[in-house]
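Q&A log
Question type: sequence-to-structure
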Amino acid sequence: MRIIKFSKAFLPSALFSATLIIIGVVGYFVMGGFNMGVDFQAGLIQEVQFAPPAFRLTYAGQGNATVSFDRNNLYIVISGSGVEAVTHTFPYADYTDVMSLTAALSQIDGLQASSEGQADAIKTAWLVYSAQATPQLGATPFVVHYLNTSDPSIPPISIEDVRESLSALGTVSVQILGKPTDRRFMIRMQDSDISGKEEQIPADKIIATLEKSLNLGADGVAVTNSNYVGSRFSKDLSNQAGILMALTMLLILIYASIRFKPQFAIGAVLAIAHDALVMVAFIAWTRMEFNTTSIAAILTILGYSINDTIVIFDRVRETRRMFPEDSFVDVLDRSISETLGRTIITTMTTMLAVLSLFIFTTGSMKDFAFALLIGMMSGVYSTIFIACGFVNFWDIVTKNKREKLRGGTRKLAKA
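Response status: OK
Response body:
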């Protein structure tokens, strides 16, 4: 088998990596830090579904009335002082269309159900729950939406159209959820673009903007989930992300120290630190949104890189036993050459899967795949040239110290 002299590139690679990391650090400060996503900032997170209204509910009776849904039933719960608590269940199997359902709902004292358009053509199986308003019914109509995903007259809405519609509101991040025909999206808006306090978040402004820009008409958007991330929580999340990265490196250092010698453990940690810094430089310069998905990508790369490093270090240990007379640098070259085929095959097959994600997805998943592609290349490079290069450097320094110590001992013996 041909042995490739990877050791000749150890020093040039170290200089190249140092230059790359310096460029990344400079880019971080020049670009004003990361392009932080709202995962690490206070802000509003909404899950919306573009679905027309099916019917509206109002209540003017005694006590309180609330509405809830599941896949098979609609429930109306009447409770409160002066009334006996009762739950009215309306199975979709018994009420297959909105017309029959609203007729049955209107039989409850004080409850008014008004349908939209051709109610007999709207199936109850198409109903979509909206969290836009409180499920407690009152004088303000509670809108129940529907969506027939197989209806060609209701085409999918692209994520680009949603982003363009909301661009005037400020820093808004959009992510598609489910299939394109589901017309579901996650919308994130930074706190700096939100006027007022948590109780006055302009969720209605986002919805009104979408309805107007996309020509959906009144009540054409169902809010299936809405959450507000406070500034304290977002700060804690940022701190926890940093702690998680540091803890990961510490655990890898401990594991590698137990399994190998200290120089191997330090080399492994330097390699994954190199990969993390390369990822940071990439994210800073490309202005990719830095969010929890970015953290997941970095941690995935660290795991991938350390796995490759451990495989080569295991081979180094075996080769050293098989060829005890060889110099350590020759052992490194032989070990890397012997595992090169495995490294290439493993990396290429994994990259093919990630490349599919990059090509066929959008939004944060596409960014995640792109970051993984860069990180995988960095992981292979750092395993061969950074981790092994450091171990070789350690061996050279140790030998030089031994030679100096022996030289000093000889001089004392002659004296």
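Response note: Residues 363-414 form the longest helix (52 residues).
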